[in-house]
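Title: Prediction job returns without error message
Component: structure pipeline
Severity: low
Priority: P3
Assignee: unassigned

Description:
Job completed but the reporter wants confirmation the result is attached to the right record. Sequence as submitted:
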Amino acid sequence: MGDESTISPKDRFLTVYGRKPVLEALADAGLRVDKVILADTARGPGAAEIQRAAKAAGVPVQRASAHRVKVLAGNGKQDQGVLADVVAPRMRALSAALADRRPPSRVLLLDGITTPANVGMILRTATAAGLDGVIVPRRGVAALDPLVVKASAGVAFRAPVLRCGSAREAAEELTEAGYGVYALGASAKTTVFDVDLPQRAAFVLGGETAGVGPEVGELVTEWLSIPMPGDAESLNVSAAAAVLSFELVRRAR
C-alpha cells in the first residue's frame, strides 16, 4: 500500500501491445494512457503514426530496445515493437481494497483460468453486474493483455480488478479479513440460489479443466452448485460467472 510510488505498475496499468491496440487506446478519449514505449528498431510509417497519435493525445513516448519491449509486453511474437500503459482507474492491490474503510462485500476470485476469452468475459459480466471486485492473481491466470481486453469489449480497462500474487494468497487474505469463501463445484448440494451469505463473501471460479485447485479448495467455507436440470454436465466458467453475478444482483434488489 503506502504512497503512490510504492504501488507496483502492474497494480495501476493495463499494458496493451501491437500497433492497432495502441492506436485504439490513444484515440479513446475515455482512457488515460500513461506512456507509450516504442522499440528503437521501430521505424517507418507505422512508428510515425503512433508518434503522431501520442503527441496529439499528450502522451510521452519512450524508446527502448526491442528486447525490452518484448519483456514488458510479455509476448514475444505480437508486440510489433510498441506497447502502451493504460491507466486502469479501478485496479488496485487486493490488500489495499481489504484495508479500506469500506472493503468490498462481494468479490470473485479467479483460480487457474488460463483462457484470455474467459477472463475478459468474466470482467465484462462482473462489471455489468456492479460487483465490488474481481481478484485476478498474477500467477496461474491469463495475463491481462489485449486478448483479455478484446474479450471484455474494452470493459477490462474500467473493471474493478484486484491484484495479488496467487489465488491461494488471496484466499488466505480473504479468510483473515472475515470473508466467507465459496467455490463453484458441480456436485455441491447447496446451490447459488439458496445459500445464506454473510455480509462479505468471495466466490472462487476454477480453471477450465481442473476446476478450483486443492490449495484454494482447502480454504473454502462452502461449495456451491448451479442447478442444471437439462442434459449437460457443466457450464463454461464465464457462463457460470454470469449466473452467479446476476443472482447477486437479484439478491441486492
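Comment from assignee: result matches the submitted record. Residues 18 and 79 are 4 Å apart (CA to CA).
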